[in-house]
Amino acid sequence: MKKIWRSILMLMLLALGAHGGIKVASLHPLLSDMARSVGGDAVEVVDLFPKNGELHAFEPTASHIAAAAGAHLVLACGKGVEPYLEDLRDSLPASTKIVDLGATVPDVYIPGTAIADPHWWNSPSAMKRAARALRLELERAFPEGKGRFAEGHRTYTRQMDNLRRVALLAFVPFEQEDRVLVCSHAAMSHFCKEFGFTAIAVHGVAQESEGDTASLARILAQLRQQNVRCLFYGVNDSPKILQTIASQVGAVTKPLVLDGIYPASGSYREMFLFNVKSIQNGLMER
Ligand SMILES: [Zn+2]
Questions:
Q1: What is the second-level CATH architecture of the domain 2-104+123-145?
Q2: Are 75 and 31 a contacting pair, CB within 8 Å?
Q3: In this predicted structure, what is the pLDDT of residue 20?
Q4: How many angstroms separate the alpha carbon of residue 188 from the centre of ligand 1?
Q5: Domain-wise residue ranges, the chain
Q6: From 1, 12, 52, 82, which residue has the greatest number of CB atoms within 10 Å?
């Protein structure tokens, strides 16, 4: 424990001396991307989430805590994505503030349940709300960067508006009854609400929450009734059960980035366009 606190102290001293702006640590790659865009060169971003990590299984280790302790802000998705958040708060010095960006986004419930879908980053409008909250937090922590943050925020907002327009245009050819998104876990409720889709999930919030036989039978009946021709598996999920269901209803499977952990880069744009293209291709199977 002594060793951890020594590292924390060293990192705090380094943070104060090494950078002219502020240091921001992030618990999700898409929040890192947002912080880099809004903060520009006035912000040094530290990614706490490991490369190829699994969002619903990640827990910070002592080295993550040490890296976060050197930061002015720690960005979190909230909405239960980080069940360890309270413990992390207790482990950090008072000078490090945890910012729950998901708190600025209204809840969207998984259809047929009273469970709020925590995957809010799949909606560009939700990302805009979070970016506004981030800008205010950055201004509070580093008033000298106000102009830079305003400019970064404007650019980021424009980018989200453009991505939203690209998606709306891509889905124009598809009728309302064809807009059904069947995913390996319940991660697209925010997206579905924004783009007028119906969400059906084979599993709950994380893929570990196994569906029982009765709900599986119900899903199969629903897929047949709605003539669903494509099912979408999260790139970090095992596609096995989805493939079994797909073969039973004669559908194909296509990948989606559900948890925002896109292997090629941490950019929101790349992730979002990948999903739009995949959904577009999937819907054309009908
Ligand atoms: Zn997920």
A1: 3-Layer(aba) Sandwich (3.40)
A2: yes
A3: 73
A4: 9
A5: 2-104+123-145, 165-283
A6: 82
